[in-house]
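Saturday, quiet lab. Running sequence design on the structure tokens for the scaffold JK sent over.
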């Protein structure tokens, strides 16, 4: 495994929500997601939102994005990568970790008979590299720090989580449903258990958690945060997801972005005080 370091567990973790769909009294929202994650000795960005909000809201809550140890991209959709170019203007040269498929052309087919529209990264790789991006693209789990790793590709192992068939990818001139192999999450190993931070979780939050457990050997789940992509999921998927999260015994579940109102309500009802929705500008101390 590249960049392997001696494993240590952070004493302090602070996760700031720079971008989410839901605005707060001082931070605007937009369709997208971005987290700033700060530990004892690391400061990294997970996704960059759709446009201006990550930079704007970071300044509003007193966070400086200069000096990041890395930026991790959960996948190659515009609502998670659209803020990257402007963020690079503040960070300068920085390592960007993701999957090799993030630059594949990605499209959405939402209406029968209508033309598909582009939903991939809105910038070319050469343009981003000129702005300071140093890409590390791998299909495998990648150690970001001594306590933080990416999931790498997430296997689809249950019968109720599926990728969105309206999302397509064009490769070699062929248009086909996107398997979203680039979909990844972050795993933070803490003394209280795993903290799992997802982008959209196109390959399923249950699959993601099970993969994190398999990768780390740690069965305790302390917190799960991010988008769960349940906004157009079946009732079966929503019900089984809530039940699974309840069974993990996670002390904190913070969902937003593409989770959807119906699923947010189900999570609140099923998890009680363990659940809090994401809002732009919120800061969670773990």
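Result came back. Writing it out in full:
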């Amino acid at each position: 495994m590249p960049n392997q370091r001696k494993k240590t567990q952070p004493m302090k973790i602070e996760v700031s929500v720079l971008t989410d769909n839901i605005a707060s009294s001082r931070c605007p929202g937009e369709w997208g997601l971005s987290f700033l994650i700060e530990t004892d000795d690391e400061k990294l960005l997970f996704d960059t939102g759709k446009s201006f909000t990550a930079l704007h809201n970071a300044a509003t809550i007193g966070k400086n994005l200069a000096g990041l140890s890395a930026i991790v991209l959960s996948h190659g959709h515009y609502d998670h990568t659209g803020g990257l170019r402007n963020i690079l203007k503040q960070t300068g040269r920085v390592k960007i970790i993701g999957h090799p498929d993030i630059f594949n052309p990605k499209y959405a087919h939402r209406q029968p008979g209508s033309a598909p529209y582009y939903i991939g990264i809105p910038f070319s790789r050469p343009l981003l590299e000129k702005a300071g991006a140093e890409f590390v693209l791998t299909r495998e789990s990648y150690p970001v720090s001594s306590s933080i790793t990416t999931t790498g590709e997430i296997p689809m192992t249950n019968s109720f989580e599926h990728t969105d068939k309206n999302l397509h990818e064009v490769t070699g001139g062929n248009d086909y449903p996107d398997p979203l192999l680039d979909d990844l999450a972050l795993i933070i190993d803490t003394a209280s258990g795993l903290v799992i931070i997802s982008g959209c979780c196109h390959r399923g939050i249950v699959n993601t958690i099970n993969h994190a457990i398999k990768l780390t050997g740690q069965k305790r789940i302390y917190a799960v945060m991010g988008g769960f992509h349940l906004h157009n999921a079946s009732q079966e998927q929503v019900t089984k997801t809530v039940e699974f999260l309840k069974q993990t015994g996670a002390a904190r579940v913070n969902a937003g972005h593409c989770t959807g109102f119906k699923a947010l309500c189900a999570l609140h009802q099923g998890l009680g005080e363990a659940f809090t929705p994401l809002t732009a500008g919120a800061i969670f101390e773990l």
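Notes for JK: The domain at 13-285 is CATH 3.60.15.10 (Metallo-beta-lactamase; Chain A). The chain is about 20% helix and 25% strand. Ask whether to fix the surface positions before the next round.
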